[in-house]
Amino acid sequence: MTLKLDKVNRGPHLSTLVASSISREIAQGRLKPGDQLPTEQALATTFGVSRNVVREAIARLRSEGRIW
């Protein structure tokens, strides 16, 4: 038996969506320079994702220079 599978059309990674959301909070002034981000667990709960996804999002923002 041979299965023929179609490619799954996927959207952006969850970490990209979370990073964009946090970036938007920064751009809109809800998170200001010097503010501490909520904990990984709090962000994971807020966005309904795993802590690993939050870690990836934070790493992305660090690499872009948005947070440090």
Blueprint (SSEs and pairs):
Elements: H1 14-27, H2 40-47, H3 51-63
Helix pairs in contact: 1-3, 2-3
Keywords summarizing the entry:
68 residues; mainly alpha; 51% helix; 0% strand
Instruction: Tell how many strands the DSSP assignment holds.
Output: 0
Percent range for helical residues?
A: 40-55%
Low-confidence stretches: none
H/E series: HHH
What is Rg? Answer: 16 Å
Terminal-residue CA separation:
53 Å
Gross morphology: elongated
Structural class category: mainly alpha
Q: Helix segment count?
A: 3
Task: Note the main sheet.
Answer: none
Write a structural description.
The structure is a single chain. This protein is an all-alpha fold. The protein is 51% helix and 0% strand. The protein has a domain at 38-68. It has helices at 14-27, 40-47, 51-63. The protein starts with 13 loop residues before the first helix and ends in a 5-residue tail after the last helix.
Quick overview of this protein structure:
The chain is mostly helical. The chain contains three helices and no strands. The protein has a domain at 38-68.
